[in-house]
Structures are given as C-alpha cells and as structure tokens.
Amino acid sequence: DTGISMCRPMYYYYPECNEAYDMKEQYMFGDDMIVTAVVKPVDKVTGLAERTMWFPEGTDWYDMSTGVMYKGGSEHTLLYTIDENPYYVKAGAVIPMAGQKIMTLQEQSPELRLVVVPGLGESSTKVYEDDGATQAYDTEYAVTEVTKTTTDGQVVVKVAPRKGSFKGMLPDRKVSVALDGFYAPSKVTVNGVEVPYKRFASYEQEDGAQVWGYDGSQLQANIWVEETPADKELEIVISFDGLESAVAPSGSKGLISRFTIMTPETKLSFFALKIRDFQLPSEFQNVAQCGSFITEKPSGAPAFIKAMDTKAMIDNINSWEKLSPEFKAKVAAQTAFAK
Questions:
Q1: Sign (positive/negative) of CA torsion 314, 268, 253, 195?
Q2: Half-sphere exposure (CA, 13 Å, Cβ side) for 280?
Q3: What is the pTM for the complete model shown?
Q4: Around 315, how many Cα atoms within 13 Å sit in the side-chain half-sphere?
Q5: Is there a contact between 180 and 220 (Cβ–Cβ < 8 Å)?
Q6: CB count in 10 Å sphere of residue 272
Q7: Model confidence over 10-42: pLDDT tens digits?
Q8: Are 177 and 158 in contact (CB under 8 A)?
Q9: Three-class secondary structure of residue 267 per DSSP
Q10: What is the DSSP string of 290-331?
Q11: At the N or C end, where does the chain have fewer CB atoms within 10 A?
C-alpha cells in the first residue's frame, strides 16, 4: 500500500461540444501522480498512438514512460508506442512502492521502494501498512513518513521510524531508492556510511549487500539499503557534482528505450539490402545502444547522451535509397514525443 489510495477523476470539457469526453479522462492518484490510458490504436506506419493530456498548474510533471518533463498548466497531444504505459509524477516527488517481487495485495512486502523523479525542493509522503487480510485496517495499522529534499548537488531521503502496529507486522524491512532520470551519483551514504558502487548491484543486493548500481536502459540510479529494523531512522544522501551532472536531458530515457526496441526491425530492414558484413550506421547505434554504453560506464552518461544525434540518425537512414519509405517515416516519427 503506497498510502496514496484515492483517485480523483479529471475531465476535459469542451463547450463547443457541450459534453465531457470519457476518452480524454485522466485521474489524479493522490496528490503526486496522474494516471491515464492510451485508447487509440497505434498508427500502422509510425507505430505511435495519440493521447491528449492536460497538466495541472503549479508544478512540472515527469512522464515515467519517456522521461519528458511537461510544464504545468499546459495541454499536449502526446505520442506513445505500444510498449509505453504513460503515467506522470509531480516534479521532485517521492513515490513509495512495494518491492518488485510482491505477488498479491494481501502479501506484506519486505521491501519499501522509493522512486524519486527530477525536480528541486522538498517532498513528503506517508506509507500506510496493515495486515492486508482483515477488516481491522482502520484500527490496526502502521505509518512511515518519508521526506525528500533535492538541491542542485544532493538528493536526501529520510525514512522516519515506523509508527503503529498490526498483527503479523514484519519487524525489519529493506529500503531501496530509485532515482529516475538522473545521472549516476558521485557518492552515496546511508546514515553517514558510504555505499559502494557495484556493476551488478541488482544481483548482489539479493544476498543482502548494501550497494548501489546504475541501469543505463532506464537512466536510473538504484540504491539498496541492507535489511534494517523498521523502527530505525534512515538518512540516504545521494551526491552529485552539480545540477547539470545530476539530471539527464528531457526525453533521453524515451529515445533509448524506443530505439533499443527498434533495433531488430532495423537489422531486418538493412538485411534485406543484402550488404555483406554490414554494421548498423553509427548514428543509429549511438541512440539504440546508448543504454548499454551507460550501464557499462555510468560516469560517461553525459557524453553518450550528447552523442545521440537524432537528426544525424534520420539523415543517415534517409540517405539509403533502397530502404522503404515506411521504415524511414517510422524512424523519424519515433524521435517525437508530442505533435
């Protein structure tokens, strides 16, 4: 249970039509998230479907699917592939989630996963827990407060001691922090103790190690804290060399994901040309393999992302006369996130 269980519908209203369009419905999930669905089929050529979204004023909104940041108070016709599940998080928010291995809502999660998105300032949330099986949820429960502060050089996440109790409550838990859309940090500490970087941190943490790692395909830094009593306060400090070295450019995550997925189709399109010993154009590889490059060398992420030149990629693809017009059109279209 994330503690943000109330959904409030948000409707578009068009006076000229004098009706609310259910197809354009979007929901606030608590105060920090907007959820929606893409209800149109993807275009047969571009592989993209349209979704009109309006973003509330007072803050920017981060698209978890593509890594694009949208201004509050604006409306956009956004473009999504069939692989993308759009939902949006308030800039700078911290979103509590259950561990990735939980299977049912009745099951207690031994892990508290905290997702942080780009955005300066302070944010807080409360995590509610109960036994998940009985009607005692209104009298027997526990609450954990989480606060997050982001400056131009640090992200500080504090997990307060859990308060309250319920039958079968687990005494210990594992906390993890995922910084989505951030570059790799220069240093991570938990309660003042430095946490080591490990290339295969996601595997080592399964054995209880306190480590951090970086997933270049998602532009996501992940910190795993060793199992700790839930009544103990945690302070997780993630340090960067400055604002420019902390946050990846808007949309980088979406480009990496889309063109990684497009790689097999691209190989088949060039294979049909029957060019011996052919390698995909470097302009395409700079985008499609960027996530792999970053995973192997997180500190090189800014340079790898700077090398993602979508115009050069489109120009190169268009220069091949025998490639189909439909494929060329798809490559160009997939670089856009809005009309």
A1: negative
A2: 18
A3: 0.90
A4: 5
A5: yes
A6: 12
A7: 433 333 333 333 445 788 988 899 999 898 899
A8: no
A9: helix
A10: HHHHHHH-GGGHHHHHHT--HHHHHHHHHT-TTS-HHHHHHH
A11: C
